[in-house]
Each structure stands twice: as C-alpha cells, then as structure tokens.
TrEMBL record:
It comes from Bacillus suaedaesalsae. Pfam families: SnoaL_2. It comes from the Bacteria. Residues 9-107 form the SnoaL-like domain. InterPro entries: NTF2-like_dom_sf, SnoaL-like, UCP030561. This is Nuclear transport factor 2 family protein.
Length: 112
C-alpha cells in the first residue's frame, strides 16, 4: 500500500528512467486519462496506456520531467512539471492531476 504522493512519485521516477514496466505498474487496469476541464477521454485502459507511453519513450529517449510543485489533498495529487529533452526540441510545462486509491492511480487529468 502506498500513499497518493508515493504513487505519484513512483510513476514520475519510472517516467524519467523510461522504465515502461514500472511506469505502467503504478496505474490501474482500467486507467482513464482525460483532458481538463473538458473531461474528454484521451486514453482508456492499461493496454492503450502502455502503447502510448511505450511509443512516447521510444520517440523521446532524452525527455525528463522535472517536478516544480506538488499539491496533495486526500487521494488527489496535482503535479506541475517542466518537461525537457523532447525530440521536437520544445520544452513544455504540464499539470497533471492524479486520482489514487491505495494501490494504483485510477484517473489522470492533464490541464489543457
């Protein structure tokens, strides 16, 4: 059992190592990824999630997400990240909100 903050950190560390197995292991089988505030679903289920991030890691072997700030309220974690090292040369800021149960991240919203 992990705290919400520990799960968010575990997935961030795996993302930065591009360890697809460890990264995906943090997410629930029925993971839902949505845009915020529209709630449009962009990814649904662990297999689709794995495929998208596997391809992202292959296309961007030098990317790195630096945690700028983290807020935790109950089972919600909000991370503000600065992502560098993408193949297109564009650095970007990202805000991700994670809904966590005691074992996995169940939902993710990316602020658009």
């Amino acid at each position: 059992m992990y705290t919400p903050e520990q799960l968010a950190q575990k997935q961030l560390d795996a993302y930065n190592r591009q360890d697809i197995d460890e990264f995906v292991s943090v997410y629930a089988d029925d993971i839902v990824v949505m845009d915020f505030p529209s709630n449009n679903i962009t990814l649904l289920g662990k297999e689709e999630f794995r495929t998208r991030y596997h391809n992202l890691f292959l296309q961007n072997p030098n990317q790195h997400a630096e945690l700028k700030h983290r807020l935790v309220k109950g089972n919600i974690v909000i991370d503000h990240e600065y992502v560098t090292g993408r193949e297109n040369g564009i650095n970007t800021e990202a805000i991700a909100m994670y809904e966590v149960n005691h074992t996995h991240i169940r939902r993710v919203w990316f602020v658009k």
